[in-house]
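Chapter summary example: a protein plus shikimate-3-phosphate.
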Amino acid sequence: MRKVYLVGFMGSGKSAIGKRLSYYLKMPYYDMDQEIVRREKMTIPEIFEKYGEERFRQIETDFLRNFRDEFCIISTGGGVAMNPQNRKIMRKTGLVLFLDATFPDIWKRIHKDKNRPIVQRSTKQELEDLFYQRRKYYREATHITIRTEGRSLKQIVEYAAFQIKRLKGE
Ligand code: S3P
């Protein structure tokens, strides 16, 4: 087990938790979206607009396939766990953590976000439907589910670190 992947819906706290977990466990941290933006030299909305969502999904899979073999923490984009190939790669190369947040909490965090094309093009109801459709795939991808409701970032990080160490056999 070399990598720790954080999966979950947009706004479930993957980046915030990933950064803190990286500090706590002294493991390097990568944000998949940021890595893609850096490599493609375009923002996520630009990639969606110029090449379409399908191309973006291909870039995500290429990233997972080719990312360097290193002990690290990776926060994934909210759509990554939908693809069976991606789930397979993540489970084979690391430990997968699902940050299970509630829709009301997620909505509060994402509804004004201009950098998320799926939020931009969807109504609240559509996002809620997507949230429920996707949960099944996050669960399928994951080794550990962490419910975030009512927990502070610190509590989530400590719990995640405890589970990671336990599963690594430390
Ligand atoms: C997406 C989530 C985003 C980003 C893209 C598509 C999705 O990542 O990859 O906008 O399909 O849920 P975050 O989960 O970090 O917002």
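Key point: The chain has a mean pLDDT of 96.
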